[in-house]
Prior knowledge:
Elements: H1 2-9, E1 13-18, H2 23-31, H3 37-45, H4 52-61, E2 67-73, H5 75-88, E3 93-98, H6 100-103, H7 107-111, E4 116-119, E5 122-125
Parallel strand pairs: 1-2, 2-3
Antiparallel strand pairs: 4-5
Amino acid sequence: MPYIENEIKKENEVFILTENNLEETIKKVLSRTNLGEEEKQKIIEIGWDRNTSEKLNKIKKEKIKEQIVFIKGEKEYIGKIDKEIQKINSNIKTIHCYSIQEVENDMKNIVEKYDAILNTIGKISI
């Protein structure tokens, strides 16, 4: 949450592309944070539903601000959506959020593909 909150404060455009609807989950998580109501509402308004095609269309149209796209799902979904994002603009910052259950035995290989990881305290260079 801190990373998303900071990107919103920088007035960057944040998108969540997810394989599963996360609306109820994010509301539960936010209810347990010490963020103010305004910050919580901004995070909810990002859109945590599964409406991928609508969000991809919005990404194509938004070119004024820096864009950060979180892609949450299994490896196949992440790969597919990442290719779509790269076709739109290769300078869009993407953050891949894998389903741990799927990749737990392959974590080392996945981590080797990246130069940083994002966890509950923020972005950490590796």
